[in-house]
Design goal:
Blueprint: E1 8-26, E2 29-38, E3 49-56, H1 61-64, E4 70-78, E5 84-92
Parallel strand pairs: 3-5
Antiparallel strand pairs: 1-2, 1-4, 2-3, 4-5
């Protein structure tokens, strides 16, 4: 294949944060890499799917991203140099406290 096709696809992911890493470079910008556990749509009793998402760091978002936090991400897939999911919009999901 002489040329690599650049494709951008929109994605929406809803899951829980497993862990996060700071000081990652993505597209030559300071980023955070978040490992997400996504529920298996066919059967919730199966092991979750795992996805890595890159979030551009503004200096304040890292403290809000805590392990086991429910999160929804709207982003896109870039495949210029390998496939990466880049977050465009992040929504932290509030859950009711259990007594």
């Amino acid at each position: 294949m002489a040329k690599q096709v650049k494709s951008h696809n929109e994605v929406m992911l809803v899951g829980r944060i497993i862990n996060r890493q700071k000081d990652i470079r993505c597209n030559n910008m300071k980023s955070i890499r978040v490992k997400l556990a996504l529920p298996n749509d066919l059967d919730y009793n199966l092991n979750p799917n795992i996805a890595f998402v890159y979030i551009y760091d503004d200096g304040e978002i890292f403290d809000k991203l805590k392990p086991n936090q429910a999160i929804a991400i709207n982003g896109h897939i870039e495949s210029n140099w390998g496939q990466r999911v880049i977050a465009d919009v992040i929504s932290l999901i509030k859950e009711p406290r259990r007594a």
